[in-house]
From TrEMBL:
Protein name from the UniProt record: Xylanolytic transcriptional activator regulatory domain-containing protein
Any one GO BP annotation for this protein: DNA-templated transcription
Region (Disordered): 37-63, 79-103, 477-526
Domain (Xylanolytic transcriptional activator regulatory) ranges: 224-295
Keyword Nucleus: yes
Domain of life, source organism: Eukaryota
Composition bias, Polar residues: 477-502
Keywords tagged on the record: Nucleus
Record GO terms (molecular function): DNA binding; DNA-binding transcription factor activity; zinc ion binding
InterPro entries on file: AtrR-like, XnlR_reg_dom
Compositional bias annotation for Low complexity: 89-101
């Protein structure tokens, strides 16, 4: 094992050396120099974070002895003015649910949805301590009513059921459409939420995040963006964005898991929809979660399983990727990403891949649990967005001729099929692109040189890149404002409608957000 560790360390050092060399080459290329110019101002280097956890911690104030009476007076005289910081904040008893009790779904239906949620969402966004949640869930069904349950637990429960419908595979005649069923649960969830409360808890953050995930899966991106913002603000209000405490062992670990789940979702959604990041890294200081199954997190301590017996952890696999997205978004503000910069990123991506457990590595032959595909492909999604940026008229034509890679994307799109309703719309996009391509071939304008110079075809190929404010280029010169609004509206895409109305092309929505970000709608773009 020691020799293997030495080899891995040397490989990482080699990757870092190549990264530094590529950065120096990029500096020379940007200045147009063929040798070092000592008088030229230095070009900024890519600020890529370390792969592993950051062990540095901010300095905390010293403990003051015999200060309890001062703290007590501060709580008293500060009432109505300020709240103590989260770890020292006394929570009022949570209100019990007193509204008319919503109908409980049949137990066998709830069992199915809870199981699907656990296999689809919890595997890479472990928001709940699963044994605790299961106990509360069973208690609910034994009572048969929500009365007496914590008020916030009710919307949390229905948000979990809603996300469980995203993975349903029921397709027999007469079965409820997943998005219709899920939308009903979301309506109950939102109706149950107390939006006026000033006593926010971690359950409020969980609920808001799950609503964002659900809306994102239905391609309702504005709604998803709003609820993501709520999840972030709530998590900051309850102090999830920095390690504090001391907290009880289970609570401390769950707080880290909830924070990193929200952080990951902020980065992934921001990258996909092309909107600003909502979390500033400088404001955060949270240790990484412990990569163990929930059953090992116990009140008396976290029990580490024997070496080799811990299952791959989807949350831990995603964290190293999302931590460099802030730098990636800065890179994507340039008109063109230079080849040397691409090489630097590729070396960095390789170092991340080397840090992964074997099932996640591209070259590994070890079997990968399909439920972990989302986490395993997140790195490739980031690479996709980086390279896709050069699919524009500003980039050299030779950089845009990635035909073999485009076919791989189309194959992935074909494999998804109608399991994702978004993929049906992407298929129409691809069919239109091919019609235009065939038409040009028939007109004698379809040779590679002509196509590379055809900006109209490039716009069609770029797909949903044209829906991103940071990367779109086809809209410049279009009417805007009142002039644009005076023209007839195109009918809204049926992909944004939660009600399917019996559409035979409708399928289910497997929860694979990072995979979707780099697939259907963007595979067309090649």
């Amino acid at each position: 094992m020691s020799s293997l560790k030495q080899v891995q360390d040397l490989e990482k050092q080699l990757v870092q050396a190549k990264q530094h060399i590529n950065q120096l080459r990029s500096m020379l290329q940007e200045r147009g120099a063929t040798d070092l110019d000592v008088k030229a101002p230095p070009a900024p280097l890519l600020n890529l974070p370390e792969i592993g956890p950051n062990t540095e911690r901010r300095h905390t104030p010293p403990t003051l002895e015999d200060f309890d009476h001062v703290r007590k007076r501060l709580r008293t005289i500060g009432r109505g003015i300020f709240k103590p910081p989260p770890p020292y904040r006394q929570q009022r008893p949570q209100a019990s649910y007193s509204l008319p009790s919503p109908s409980l779904p049949p137990k066998h239906v709830a069992d199915r949805l809870i199981s699907q949620y656990h296999g689809a969402v919890h595997v890479y966004a472990p928001l709940l301590h699963w044994p605790t949640f299961v106990d509360e869930y069973e208690t609910l069904y034994r009572a048969g009513t929500f009365h007496g349950i914590r008020h916030i637990w009710v919307p949390l429960f229905f948000s979990i059921l809603a996300c469980g419908t995203l993975e349903t595979q029921d397709s027999f005649p007469g079965s409820a459409r997943p998005e219709t069923e899920g939308t009903s649960y979301v309506e109950t969830c939102i109706q149950s939420l107390d939006l006026w409360t000033d006593e926010l808890t971690i359950d409020h953050a969980r609920t808001a995040l799950l609503l964002s995930i659900f809306f994102m899966e239905l391609n309702l991106k504005s709604a998803a963006w709003i609820w993501l913002g709520s999840a972030i603000r709530i998590s900051q209000d309850v102090g999830l964005h920095y390690d504090s405490g001391p907290w009880p062992i289970v609570e401390a670990e769950v707080r880290r898991r909830v924070w990193w789940s929200i952080y990951n979702w902020d980065r992934l959604v921001s990258l996909e929809v092309g909107r600003p990041l909502l979390i500033d890294d400088d404001d955060c200081e949270v240790g990484w979660p412990t990569p163990v199954d929930d059953r090992y997190i116990q009140p008396n301590g976290i029990v580490m399983p024997p070496d080799g017996q811990s299952p791959p952890n989807g949350l831990i696999a995603v964290i190293p990727v999302v931590r460099f997205i802030s730098q990636l978004k800065r890179t994507l503000k340039a008109r063109v990403v230079a080849p040397a910069t691409l090489d630097t990123y590729d070396a960095y991506f390789q170092s991340i891949m080397l840090s992964y457990p074997e099932p996640y590595q591209i070259t590994s032959g070890a079997p990968l649990d399909p439920r972990l595909l989302c986490a395993a492909t997140t790195l490739q999604v980031a690479r996709f967005f980086l390279y896709r940026h050069n699919l524009s008229p500003a980039c050299r034509r030779t950089f845009r001729a990635e035909y073999a890679v485009a076919l791989v994307c189309v194959c992935a799109m074909s494999a998804v099929g109608d399991l994702r309703r978004a993929n049906v719309a992407c298929g129409r996009n691809l069919a239109f692109f091919l019609e235009q391509l065939i038409d040009r071939v028939h007109r004698g304008e379809g040779n590679p040189q002509q196509l590379l110079a055809d900006e109209e075809m490039l716009a069609y190929a770029s797909g949903d890149m044209q829906g991103c404010p940071e990367s779109s280029w086809a809209w410049t010169g279009s009417e805007t404002g009142t002039k644009l609004n005076s023209t007839p509206l195109h009918p809204p895409s049926d992909i944004t409608q939660p009600q399917l109305n019996g559409d035979p092309t409708a399928g289910t929505y497997p929860h694979r957000a990072p995979l979707r970000m780099g697939s259907p709608s963007e595979t067309d773009s090649k």
